[in-house]
Structures are given as structure tokens and as C-alpha cells.
Amino acid sequence: MKQALAVGALWVVLLFGGAWLLAPRLAAEAEEPGPSAQSGGETLADSRSVLQVYDGEKTVEMTMAEYLPGVVRGEMPATFALEALKAQAVAERTFIYYHMQGGRKAAHPDADVCMDYRCCNAWVSREQAKSNWGDNFEEYDRKILQSVEETDGQVMLYAGKPILAAFHSSSAGITAKSGDAWVSDLPYLVSVKSPETAESVPNYYSVNTFTAEQFREKILAEEPEAVLEGSAKGWVTDLQKNSSGRVESATVGGVPIRGTRLRSILGLRSACFTVECGEEDITFRVTGFGHGVGMSQYGADALAREGKSWQEILRWYYRGVSIETWK
């Protein structure tokens, strides 16, 4: 997101399979003239892959070539370098097939995927993109379609299966392994260095200050056993950080809380934070945006601008994977 420089878009934080990303919250529409409709794409692998897509009201049939451009528009700014957009297209395609392999979701049992960012993917139609991008529409639309067509059918596999191609907006110089954010470690989602900096990422550093009452209300709603009385100075203690610099755990009002959960409770941009407790307020200084696992979108853009290909970008963030045509 899941998630920046999208023109005319409202960027929101979203939950991505237990992970947070940055993505534009925009209206989804079912009609989508994707690559197959614009370039004789019946020969494309994506044009031969048919999906059942829930558009919020009904289930419609779309090819991957029709669905995927809308997802790339929704999940990554079109201002990013083309190779970064290609990496995003492959990550998204892989993510879609990964979840399809696991069966349909309860939210849409008759559909493979949907257009709701809170469930599957952010999705933006060409019509909405044209309104958002204005005079830049032709350039940006061409880049999005090119990113999908030139990676046609390509997915990332590990042990012959599509991977959980997690991604996030920006890291604090290093990504997190999957176990840092979720429950288990996956062999291809390890911690790696990421090249984005404060100069290239809007709001790379953020500050959240809560009054004692605000903090107490948020914590007790989720952790009623916490003791938050008197001065706020001793309310948050014992910050333990993991190898990627994110908060692994903290003690809040005497109750141990995982860093990712504390981030969720307080609505922080990432679990990479420091805490300052005063008498009457508590301040969190945060770096980066997202769960930190897998591909950093701003990192991908930085790597692309250094001259790396989309394949090199993906192998940078997803270790030990093969990139193959999914049939």
C-alpha cells in the first residue's frame, strides 16, 4: 500500500493479510480495457488467465491482463521508474496466484479476487486514473500497461509454488524478515538492506504524540490489564528491538506487547520507533511506512533509478526465488 506521489489520490493505510501498506483509496469499476484489449494481447499469458473478480456488488469475469493494470495503478505511484513498476506488476501477479492457490476468501466465496484494498488489492480503473492524472494520463497509462505487458505471465516461485510476495511503502534502511512482522519465518522473506532515504521518501520520519488520556484510552481498549495511572513517565518501558531495528516488544503499563501490535493499536506508520514518555504525554518517533517485509516500493524505485532491472529488484528483496511464466 496497503501505502507517496500519486496525483489526485487519497493515500490511506491498509491491512494487507496482517500487513500494512500504502495505497490510494479510489473507486473501483468493472470495465477495464487492459493490455489484451489494446494490443492484440490474446497471445499474452495474462490474457489466457481468467479470473472471477468481485467488484463490490457482483462477480465479473476478467482476464489477468484486464485486472492487473488496475492493481498496479492502485498500489504504486505511476511517477515511479518503469523497472520498479514492472517489479510491482510481478509481485502483484504472484500475490494474486499465491492467494488463489489457497482457496477463495469468505468475503467473496464466488470470486478469486476483489477490488477492495481491505481484502485483496487496491484497484483503479483507467477512467478514474485519467481523472487523477490529468495531463499526465497518456504517459502514466503507457507506463502501467507496459509494466504488465513486458512482464507477461511472470511470477516468483519458491519450491515450484507462487510466493507470498509481500511489499510495503518504505523501510528504515533495512527490511524485516517475515517472522518480525508475523508468526513464522519464510525462507524468501529475509531482512535485506534497502536504499531509500529521507530525501526520496515523503514523510519518511513521522511523529505521533498522545496525551496521557488518549494513550490510556487506546491501550485499555485492547489491553484492559494494563495499569496506566499517575504520571505517564513510566508507562512504556523495556523496548526490545530485533535485528532489523524494529521494536520486537515493549512493556506498557506492566503488560508485554509485541511491537507490531503496539503499532497497530496506536496507528503508527511502522514498528521502527522510539518512545519518549513525559509527565502528561507520550511521543513516538517513527521511521518508514509499512510492515517492512518483502519489497520496499520506494526502495524498488531507488534501485531502478540506479539502473537495476525488474528481475534484479525482485531478487534483491525476495531471496532464492525463480522467476518463471505461470501456466
UniProtKB/TrEMBL annotation:
Residues 59-158 form the Sporulation stage II protein D amidase enhancer LytB N-terminal domain. It holds the Pfam family SpoIID. The keyword Thylakoid does not apply. It comes from the Bacteria. One of its GO terms (biological process) is sporulation resulting in formation of a cellular spore. Transmembrane segments: none annotated. InterPro entries: SpoIID/LytB, SpoIID/LytB_N, Spore_II_D_firmicutes. Keywords: Plasmid. This is Stage II sporulation protein D.
